[in-house]
Specification:
By secondary structure, the protein is an alpha+beta fold. Helix content is about 50%, strand content about 10%. A 4-stranded antiparallel beta sheet has the order 1-2-3-4, with no helix packed on it. A hairpin with a 2-residue loop joins β3 and β4. α8 crosses α13. The longest helix has 19 residues.
């Protein structure tokens, strides 16, 4: 990993498997509004947390590498006060301090070295990606009510020196995921609960469908609409779009979709628009094929509604 948009030469970084690699973040990722917003939220959180200690952080890249801010965050957030130098001036002292701090943090976060997306070397080298991963993990653990931008990702170029030359691969790395996917299984590595649901007995499936149906009608009552069949009535995308507007508090111009679709293509347009809106707002529905909803596929329809239900059930 390397600092965002860095052009100058840096020390080689070791990846988590121990191979010699460098992860260079595409400069355009710096301009991503979600990345910018995430940095702003984290800066505001750090400064509000450490205000009583008269510590002001202006740069995530430049102000956390020596361990001072991380030590104070650990003390304020987790009540852990470590026996380390308050101000470490030399490189060696800073690294020793970071080793103690990150060891304690990893233990508190219940992570081993292989699971952590940060190392002493990365944090000390002012690696922004590793720093963001670390801060997000701290927030998730100690400040779960803090709303972070969902689905923040960066584009990376992975450069590796091999016997045959330099190998470069592009990849995307997520820093945050959607709120609902965090609640449902820690990021996107586990199977969706709805996929698991449809492996259960029929009566359990019906119980969940009834709960979602009640949720839908409760939120559509103000529009004078009533849903009795989840699959059929969501197939044209109209009620889905109206429901999204109700729950996410925005108006979708009628010119953007077909209010009374008469063909499969118009229905597909509506459903595709609905899924695009959900993805933009951080819902993990990228795997849902809009054609499946148009075709009244039960798991696809219920999955989309479940994610809406899961985020807004307490409204």
């Amino acid at each position: 990993m390397a600092d965002f948009g860095a052009e100058e030469e840096k020390d080689d970084f070791s990846n988590r498997q121990g191979g010699e690699k460098r992860m260079i973040i595409q400069p355009t990722s710096l301009e991503d509004p979600k990345v910018i917003k995430l940095k702003e939220v984290l800066l505001d959180w750090i400064n509000s947390t450490l205000k009583v200690e008269h510590i002001v952080v202006r740069s995530l890249e430049e102000d956390l590498y020596d361990g001072l801010v991380l030590h104070h965050l650990l003390r304020r957030s987790a009540g852990i006060d470590l026996h380390v130098e308050e101000i470490a001036l030399s490189t060696g002292a800073q690294i020793r301090k970071l080793e103690v701090i990150l060891k304690s943090l990893n233990e508190t976060l219940e992570l081993n070295v292989d699971q952590a997306k940060w190392t002493v070397k990365l944090i000390h080298s002012r690696d922004l990606l590793a720093t963001l991963h670390l801060l997000v993990a701290i927030v998730r653990r100690f400040q779960p009510d803090l709303v972070l931008p969902a689905n923040v990702s960066v584009e990376l170029i992975q450069c590796e020196v091999t016997k045959s030359g330099i190998k470069a691969d592009k990849q995307t790395e997520f820093i945050t995921f959607s709120e609902s996917s965090d609640e449902l299984g820690r990021e996107s590595n586990k199977e969706c609960p709805i996929d698991e649901l449809f492996k259960l007995e029929a009566h359990k499936i019906e119980t969940v469908k009834k709960a979602i149906l009640h949720f839908v009608n409760k939120n559509m009552a103000s529009l004078g609409l009533n849903v009795t069949d989840l699959e059929k009535q969501f197939a044209d995308g109209v009620i889905l779009l109206l429901l999204i507007g109700q729950l996410e508090d925005f108006f979708i111009p009628l010119s953007e979709f077909f209010l009374c679709p008469v063909s499969s293509s118009e229905m597909l347009h509506n459903v595709t628009l609905a899924l695009d809106l959900l993805i933009d707002r951080g819902f993990p529905v990228q795997s849902v094929n809009p054609q499946d909803i148009v075709s009244q596929d039960v798991p696809a329809t219920v999955k989309v509604l479940y994610y809406l239900f899961n985020r807004h059930k307490n409204k």
